[in-house]
Amino acid sequence: MKSEPDVYSIQDLKRDKTAMWEGCRNYQVRNMLRDSMQINDLAFFYHSNAKPSGIVGIMKIVSHAYPDPTQFEKESEYYDEKSSRENPRWYVRDVEFVEEFSDTITLQDMREIPELNEMLVLRKGQRLSITPVSPEEWKSVIGLDHKK
DNA sequence: GCCAACGTTGGC
DNA sequence: GCCAACGTTGGC
Questions:
Q1: Is the CB of A128 under 7 A from strand C?
Q2: CA atom of A49 to C1′ atom of B2, Å
Q3: Phi and psi dihedrals of A106, rounded to 5?
Q4: Residue A29 CA to nucleotide B11 C1', Å?
Q5: From CA A64, how far away is CA A43, in angstroms rounded?
């Protein structure tokens, strides 16, 4: 799950303990948030537009999907006039801090190991802010963390 | 700041 | 339903 650290970083989540993953405005991402995730699933926290970009830690999904309140707030940058409380377009999950890696697992780190060749987040032109991770990919990333 | 690679919008 | 124009993401 991507976030720009200037907007919300793993350090922010560590401080807050839990957070609402707000502001996703892409239908594929919405569907994953709403339908694919389960409570107690783990997720990598990814810093995008960062120096360097990469995976910085682990968090846990701790709520069911519920409507993103920011879509109804006129003063919010995430306001969506086409959405309604009766038929909300956008959803959020609550996430809980689990772990901050001692070093960022950078995109370069991940591209160097063949096990992660197929990892969706590494694919060219891939812009979704949430992408699935296979169990094998999860283990490989954890392995990279242990090496650092 | 550039720009490739997408997603979205809206005229037709 | 097509597709051109436009907007956004995000690595570099």
A1: yes
A2: 14
A3: -80, 165
A4: 28
A5: 15
* Per-residue pLDDT tens over the stretch A14-63: 999 999 999 999 999 999 999 999 999 999 999 999 999 999 999 999 99
Query: What's the total number of domains in chain A?
Result: 1
A100 Cβ contact list (under 8 Å, min separation 6): A10, A11, A14, A56, A57
A96, A44 contact by CB (below 8 A): no
Query: What residue has token string 């846990």?
Result: A60
CATH number of the domain encompassing residue A45:
3.10.590.10
Sign of the C-alpha dihedral, residues A122, A24, A21, A11? Answer: positive
